[in-house]
Structure formats: C-alpha cells, structure tokens
Amino acid sequence: QLQLQESGPGLVKPSETLSLTCTVSGGSISSSDYYWGWIRQPPGKGLEWIGTIYFSGRTDYNPSLKSRITISIDRSKNQFSLMLSSVTAADTAVYYCARRRHSSSHMDVWGRGTTVTVSS
Amino acid sequence: QSALTQPASVSGSPGQSITISCAGTSSDVGGYNYVSWYQQHPGKAPKVVIYDVNNRPSGVSNRFSGSKSGNTASLTISGLQAEDEADYYCNSYTSSSTWVFGGGTKLTVL
Predict the structure, then answer these.
(1) Residue ranges of chain A whose CB lies within 8 Å of a chain B CB
(2) Local structure of residue B63 (DSSP, 8 states)
(3) What pLDDT, in 10s, does the model give residues A32-47?
(4) Confidence class for position B71, pLDDT limits 50, 70, 90
(5) Residue-level pLDDT at B1
(6) Chain B positions in Cβ-Cβ contact with residue A46 (cut-off 8 Å)
(7) DSSP, res B24
C-alpha cells in the first residue's frame, strides 16, 4: 500500500532554510485524486497545518507561514518538498507529510514524521 | 486563521461514552462538511478516525462517530476502551482555501 517517508536534516541553524522531502512509494504522486501536504507539531503542542500541493503544482499555504514557505512537487521522483526560510527556535517540531483525498477532509496516509531542531 | 477550540482534556471510564467538541466559525466548521478527526498516541503519527463530519474510514471501530451542529463539530466515542486513550484533533477546511486544526484534546480512560 501507499507509504510516505519524510527526509531531511534533523538540525538547522537559526535564520537558515529548512528543507524536507516526502517520498511517495506504492502509488503515484501524479494522481488527480489526491492532495499532498505538510503538518508540524512542536514539542508538547498540537498539530499545525503548513500547506498543500496538488499534482498540477497548485499550492495553498498557512497564512501565518506563507511568507516563508514553498512547497514543490517533483513528479519524476514521486516526491514533494517543503522549504521554510528564516527559521527560529519556534520552528522546532516534528514535521509530517500526508495525503488528502480530493474533495474531502480525509487525510488517509501519513508519514512517520521527522524531528527538526533549530539551534546554533 | 485561529485554531479551532477543543477542550484541553476529557475523561471517562471503560464502557462509558464521551464527546469531544470542536468549535469554529461560519467560515470553517459551520460553512463546510469538511471536518475530520485524528487520533494520536504518544510518539506516533496521527490517524484519521472520522472524515467529512460523519464518515468512518474502513478499519476504524464503529464506536467512533461524528456530527456537526452549526459552527461546532463533535466526536463521540462509545464503549470506551483503554486503547482509546490518546490525543484527538479536529481539522476543518476554511473559506480561505486553507485548513485549520483544533488545539487538541487529551482523552484519559479512567
């Protein structure tokens, strides 16, 4: 069945750019039936929606992060990526990638999450 | 966008029923039938238990049910079991074409 796997540096310095990739296996990222997204969870806190991308490249971003984030898709590699610029300690979190069904609130497949710490 | 409002904690004894509320506005919960609920055990990724207000994914126990009235959605768990102890989050589509989570509710099974 379809699986998602996050990857990227576990430690990022303040003011630098956080870059994560989500690799999709067992299915195609080019399906028109799904959106692909990022969610994060700071230590001991709740979930925060970061943004979503469709296979066409259309994106939607959290307004509070919009000025700092870029989500992109690489259909040839079956991957999508997150870039978050000018990071601070407040960006320390577990970052999850997930799949959401089109025309639904159903986020049915999640990655296991990757921990990113912002520290000098 | 503001997070949806959930109670910080709820508790119940095995076999009882509990309900977790998720309060929003007419621009999110009240405006669309795109509300989902996620269960998260410590150290694990969230898992969907209800989507589109009241739909249950295959494999999820029928003890989980969802509903919505006005700007408030609710998750009910009947016949509480020890394994239900977890954090629960609601999630809704918004009029800005974005999504927003609730602050989360810690369920304790006494």
Answers:
(1) 37, 39, 46-49, 52, 60-64, 96, 104-108, 110-113
(2) T
(3) 999 999 999 999 999 9
(4) very high
(5) 74
(6) 3, 87, 89, 101-104
(7) -
Of B1, B46, B97, the CB nearest to A47: B46
Across the interface, do A47 and B45 touch by the CB < 8 Å criterion?
no
Tens of pLDDT, residue by residue over B35-69, are: 999 999 999 999 999 999 999 999 999 999 999 99
Chain A CA closest to residue B45: A112
Helix (H) and strand (E) counts in chain A: 0, 11
Candidates A60, A62, A110; nearest CB to B45: A110
On the 0-12 / 13-18 / 19+ scale of CB atoms within 10 A, B22 is: buried
Beta strand pairing status for B99-101 and B86-93?
Answer: antiparallel
| pLDDT band (50, 70, 90) for residue B2 | confident
Sign of CA dihedral A39, B91, A112, A88: positive
